[in-house]
Amino acid sequence: MAKTLGAIVAALGGDLRGSSDLVIERLAPLARAQAGELAFIAQARYAKQLQQTQAGALIVAPALQDAAAARAPCIVCDDPYLYFARLTQWWRREHEPLPAPRLDPQASIDPSAQLEPEVDVGPFAVIGPAVRIGRGARIGAHAVIGALAQIGAHTVLHPRVSIGTRCVVGARCVLHPGVVIGGDGFGFAPQQGRWVKIEQLGAVRIGDEVEIGANSCIDRGALDDTVIEDGVKLDNLVQIGHNVRVGAHSAMAGCVGVAGSADIGAHCSIGGGAVVLGHLSLADGVHISAASVVTRSITKPGHYTGLFPIDDNASWEKNAASLKQLNRLRERLKALERALEPDLSKTPEA
Length: 350
What we know:
Elements: E1 3-4, H1 5-12, E2 15-17, E3 23-24, E4 26-27, E5 37-40, H2 47-52, E6 57-60, H3 65-71, E7 74-76, H4 80-95, E8 108-109, E9 114-115, E10 120-121, E11 126-127, E12 132-133, E13 138-139, E14 144-145, E15 150-151, E16 156-157, E17 162-163, E18 168-169, E19 174-175, E20 180-183, E21 188-191, E22 194-197, E23 204-206, E24 211-212, E25 217-219, E26 226-228, E27 233-234, E28 239-240, E29 245-246, E30 251-252, E31 257-258, E32 263-264, E33 269-270, E34 275-276, E35 281-282, E36 286-288, E37 293-294, E38 302-304, H5 313-324, H6 326-340
Parallel strand pairs: 4-5, 5-6, 6-7, 8-11, 9-12, 10-13, 11-14, 12-15, 13-16, 14-17, 15-18, 16-19, 17-20, 18-23, 19-24, 20-25, 23-26, 24-27, 25-28, 26-29, 27-30, 28-31, 29-32, 30-33, 31-34, 32-35, 33-36, 34-37, 36-38
Antiparallel strand pairs: 1-3, 2-7, 21-22
């Protein structure tokens, strides 16, 4: 179902330059967009691509409006990237409207569960005793919600999501397929060469507007709760250990691992494959590069990287061998410095 530029601007705002009747068939990347398709240019440094694109219309910043309008209709706004994000949401609502909510007869809903109006429950979902689900929430097929758990209004649990006993998920969250909230944290006490399980008695508390990618896991706390604050965004295959706290509006890319009892501040970002060791703290506004290993607490905001640079294997092996000798070389250097220090006892008195 195509939309006109006029309809888009009426819904989302912006300054339209050119015909409002131009029909937009789809949204497209700038480099591959064709006539009848809408793309965006986020920053002025991409201005060269403006002359190369075949897009039927563009979303641009004010600095590019004259050049864009000279070639085709355009929507001018202060932040094209943000405008495009909101456009994708509107486009999905217009083209993929949600079906009317219903409780599938193949779902298992405990009689003591409390479901507010307009809740949608898919086939084979299981909703346990004393569960509370807010208005307009959508529970996907085969999802499982344990006893006493709470799901906020308009939150979406995609198929096969598992919410553990007593865990809380806030309003307007999105949990993608395979997410597990409230599995046991990894806690064991050693005893004569064997491991004795420490029962995990806490839960998980997730704030509002949190999005969690497919097959990510957030463990319940050992005694206190694991806490994910408002607006946090987690990619696929992220592991959050027990008793971790993740501050508001922080984001983690795929395959990040955060070990138990770490404390991540607000507005942090952690690149894909990075690891934060247990019991460490990251201040607000800390940004960790992909594949880094955080081995100490970070008390000041900024961008941090902990990587051993990739190299051809022969060179890498030589450098790794040198690293193994650093401590011995350090001790030799200290001994040499001591040997070169002046003997103050032999200094003649004034």
